[in-house]
Every structure is written in structure tokens, then in C-alpha cells.
Amino acid sequence: MLFRIAIALALLTAACSVGDAGDTTPPTTAIAELVDSNGAAIPPAPEAPSGPVADVALAAVDSVWMDLAGGIDPMAIAAIGGTGDVRLAWLLSDLLRFFPSSAIGNAAFDAFVELAGLDAPESNTQTHWRIVTDYLIAWDTPAPPGYVAYKEQLFTLVEPRWHHFFADEGADIDWRLISWGGVLIDDRSRGDQEGCERGCIPAIDDPPVTSAADGSWYHDDRVVFGVVVNGEARAYPKNMMEVHEMVNDTVGGRRIGMPYCTLCGSAQAFYTDVTPDGFGNLTLRTSGLLSRSNKVMYDLDSKSVFDTFLGVALSGPLHDEGFVLEPVSVVVSTWGEWKEAHPGTTIVARDGGRGITYPDDPLRGRDDNGPIFPVGNVDPRLPVQEQVLGVVDADGTVIAFPVAAATAQLAAGRSVVSAGIELVRDGGGLRAFDGDGEEVPSHQAFWFAWSQFQPETLVWMP
């Protein structure tokens, strides 16, 4: 109740505040020059053929793929470069992911350069895999017929348990965009609090919590991801979420799943207790795969893959049902500001229920300088790593609010309104409301991530 009263007062204050609400910029419908996340120009796309792959090109690919488990002959890869079918560059991209610095990787890069008709691109900051894959994504190069089968053969050599994801021929997964995140699948049973011997990112299920008063071990200036469900508030320390990247929990009597994509700077939450008949509560897990630098999550029981950013089921039985997860707002705040705004909040216990000590900064600034995985071309309206609060209203209008600018505007007593959506402060973070005072689910993310998964987004500007 206190939270609802505080929000109502904030909306009233904002409505009476001085100054205008700012402007919005529309989606970029045509970008004269494609650029990657480092601002480097991406050359124009080469023409891709259509129809079946020529027999000679198939023979070149097959001569490489038949030796995947043994020793690949770099000369066989060179033959792919001479086929003239740039669609085969997606297979070269996949090889480069697993053989980045080797004779195999060098041969794959040289074959790509030949297929694309380019002078060899050079970069002091990006690997050959990044360059090739950024180009292919930016060009929207079609995949060759039979691509998924080739990709499955390669990827399941690394992690056989990914075969579930490849098995659904009717899936809406764009396999061109799927890459390896460097870890294996988390398929531990629900409630398993042990680590991953095989090298996964272990989700945490139903972690023990303590009161705000007993959460003094977490410094007030440290970041938490806060949710409020049916009046119950809970804080998830950022450093814990950087280790687990997924939590399944009960808050306010509802089951929720919270994936945290560190690469996208995006903590999201979804209700997982309202599902089609016969499914029951979902348990979300990290697959070890990425799509344009966004973690690919899945449901443990049905093996259904989700678009983590949009909550849409892309494969498996939940895809067959047309299922979409319902989002819950996540507020990014300092712990001190969150518990001041929500004195009844709980916070995940210091050891996460696992008897371990979490480092203060597990990632040590890894994502401070832009994406480290391929994302293709970028939307130039904002810097790639700028944090935005993303909102999709009831009529489907998509809006991004730069967090720093919006926070400064509200601190100055000015309103922040765009397309009928108004922002208010909650602790050290932001929430979004429509013209009727109803909350609209929102979450923060790096701009590159929000804009690539929501390309029609408007951008509020002060």
C-alpha cells in the first residue's frame, strides 16, 4: 500500500512539475553507412545467390565437416572460399568461433574474404570471428540450405545436450544468429544448489532471503535488481546475479524467473506460474548459447527455447502453444535507496544459500567498453553501451528512455513523458506508468541490445 501511495504522489508531483517532457526521435529507417559496435564501417553486402547450393560447393563443405571430430584440413576450408556462394560464410563463422587462432581459423577467415570479394579487413580490437559475424549479421546474408544440420553437427560436438534445441524443425530460432557463449548448458534439476562441474552458469532456485536490517553486509552504494509483486519487495544483489545470471523464485505469492544478461546489461523478470494447460510452473535455465550477444534461455522441463529479451517461446512445446512470458518490472537501484523506498524489502542471503562467498565485482569491468560478441550493425541514435529504460505499452508502442538523462530530469523537478508513458523514481531507479496511472512493465538494458531486439523503438530525448 505504501508503495502505491508513493507512486501516486510521484505521478502527481510530476504532473505539476515545471518544464516540458522532452522529445522523441523515431526509428532509423535507413542508415547510409553500416557501422559495427566500435564505430568501424561495414562494407556493402555482396550479392548472395538463391536456390540450392551447387554440388561442387556442397562437396567442399562436406569434405570439411566429415573431419570435424578428427583433424580439419585447412586446404579443404580454402576450397569453400572458391565456391562463390557467400551464404556458406555462415559455416565459416561457426568454424571461427571454435577455432579462432589456428591454421583452421586463418583458413576460414581467408575463405570468407574471398567469398565476400573484400580486401582483408583489419582490426586491432576485434577477432576475425567478430569481424566476419558482424558483417554477416549487418548484411542479413541468408543461410545456405541445410545450414541447421551442419551447425548441429559442429555444436553438439562441443555440447551434446544442445541436441534438444536443434530437434524442433518447426522452431522460430534464427540459427544464423546463434553462437556459443563459452559455457555449457545448465540442465541441473530444479533446486540443485551445487555448482556445474561441466562448466555451466548455474541458476539459483528459491534462494534464502533476509530482512533489510539483516542485509547490512551489502553496502548501500552497491547495485540491486528490485522487484515488487503483490506488495512484496525483493532485492537481488548485482554481484550474485553476475555469478548465476538466472534466479527462479517466489515473490508476492507468484513464481518468477529473472534472467540477467550481463552482456546486454539487462536484468528482466517474467511470471512463470501462468502457462498453458499441462505445463505447470516453468524453471528457466541458461543454455550456454547466445543470440546477438543476448543469453538464450530455456525451460528445464519442456526444453522450449525463449527469446530472452522478448519472452517469446521460439521452439519446443511452448512454441507450439504460441506462449509468451508475461514481464515484470525490474528496477535497478542502489541497495541503500531501494531499502529506503521499500523498508519491508527482503534481500537474497549473503551466501545465496550455497555457503559460498561472492566476489564484489565478478566481471571486473568486462562489459564497460562495448559488446564483446557480434551484434552486426548498430543504431546510431545513442552510444552502444548507454543504459536505457525500455518500455512497450499496451498498444505496442516501443520507447527507450536514456537512464542518466531521465534521472537528471526528474531530479531537477521536470517530468519525463513520451508517447503517453511517464517515468517516476523508485529508490535509485525508474518505473513507467501509462496515462491511467497503471504500471507498464519495464527494464534497463544497454542501448545496442534494446535497439536490436526492438528496432522500431522511439527514443525520448530531454
Describe the protein:
The chain is α+β, with helices and mostly antiparallel strands and 462 residues long. Helix 3 (74-81) packs parallel to helix 5, helix 4 runs antiparallel to helix 5 (103-116) and helix 4 runs parallel beside helix 7. The strands form five sheets. Strands 3, 7, 8, 9, 10 and 15 form a six-stranded mixed beta sheet that branches. A five-stranded mixed beta sheet has the order 1-25-19-18-24. Strands 2-11-12-13-14 form a five-stranded antiparallel beta sheet. The chain has helices spanning 2-15, 55-65, 74-81, 89-98, 103-116, 128-139, 147-158, 163-167, 238-244, 316-320, 335-341, 403-411, 447-453, and strands at residues 23-25, 178-180, 204-205, 209-211, 223-229, 232-237, 246-251, 254-261, 266-267, 269-271, 284-291, 294-299, 305-307, 312-313, 326-328, 331-334, 346-348, 387-392, 398-402, 417-418, 421-426, 429-433, 439-440, 442-446, 458-461. The chain has three domains: 2-30 and 376-461, no CATH class; 55-167, no CATH class; 180-348, 3-layer Sandwich (Rieske Iron-sulfur Protein), CATH 2.102.10. It is 26% helix and 23% strand. Mean pLDDT is 92; it is low at 1-20. The two termini are 32 Å apart. It contains 13 helices and 25 strands.
List the helices and strands and how they pair.
Layout: H1 2-15, E1 23-25, H2 55-65, H3 74-81, H4 89-98, H5 103-116, H6 128-139, H7 147-158, H8 163-167, E2 178-180, E3 204-205, E4 209-211, E5 223-229, E6 232-237, H9 238-244, E7 246-251, E8 254-261, E9 266-267, E10 269-271, E11 284-291, E12 294-299, E13 305-307, E14 312-313, H10 316-320, E15 326-328, E16 331-334, H11 335-341, E17 346-348, E18 387-392, E19 398-402, H12 403-411, E20 417-418, E21 421-426, E22 429-433, E23 439-440, E24 442-446, H13 447-453, E25 458-461
